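REQUEST FORM: STRUCTURE PREDICTION
Request ID: SP-0412
Submitted by: Lab K.M.
Chain count: 1
Length (residues): 340
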Amino acid sequence: MIIWLNGAFGAGKSTAARELLDLLPGSTLYDPELVGAGLRTMLSKERLAEVDDVQDLPSWRRLVVDTAAALLSEMPGPLIAPMTLLHQEHRDEIFGGLAARRITVQHFLLHVEETFLRARIDQRAAVEGDAVRTRCLADLPRYDAALPWLTDDAHTVEASRLTPRQTAEALAEASRSGAGTCQIVQTPAPRAETLAAGVLLFDDRDRVLLVDPTYKPGWEFPGGVVEAGEPPARAAVREVAEELGLRLPHEPSLLIVDWEPPHPPRYGGLRLLFDGGRLGPDLLDQVLLPGAELRGWRFAAEDEAEHLLSPGRYARLRWALRARALGRPLNLEAGVPVGA
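STATUS: Completed
RESULT:
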């Protein structure tokens, strides 16, 4: 298990984590910042210059998960991770990766009122220098912007007037009660190429339905991996039922087949998109999301979808819409029609 301590820079996560070690027998301090320090040492200056923060590196997010799994193979846990996460997509990728490895996450937010937070930042800067003050204060607007999803996702401990020991005692009590436990249920990461089936569902304006997973970044189409021995079209129907609570009246027609090449750490495989047709108001009223897997859904026009989907998924959507207009399926490789 991992106890993830989130909050603004200067909220006292690290000091509370060290106090928490005394209160939870067998616990170990796991600082993902050390993963970032290693990457800063090994990566080229040119690559580091391409990102604003080490957390923006996909390698950092993968290594945070892999390192946690490696540590828990050596010791009983829990791991106590004091680390600020202000991008919800980063949270989704890391916590989803941990869930795929069957590692439970308890997510806690140490919230400190801004007046107290600024005073703590000044105290820290007096010891560590003005650069710390500049960095911490610059991140306050990002923290304020993230508060709506943070307070919804994490168990909040109001730490403004608490000492580090009192904060740790509140965290220990909350952890023992199971507070902040993330409910993500995720299948293990693939170990070979996969076959996946997605479904495009439309409204009366021909906008496509997209869903927002809790276990990985970005939006996507309803769908998932085809199980062994399962017909792909039937898998698409099953996934729509599991994810949206909708029973499609018939198996959908194929729009595209796309071969996704391997791109470490992903293995790639075949990606199919089917046409699920238009959803009337009666079906839309029946949409019921599994909260542990999907946090929301929406219809999006093609230009809106470009800003919500990954480049690979958006390329599939574009060609799937073309195939729908043509009335025949298209064969793609890496998002490009074969022979184009």
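NOTES: The chain has a mean pLDDT of 92.
Reviewed by: T.R.
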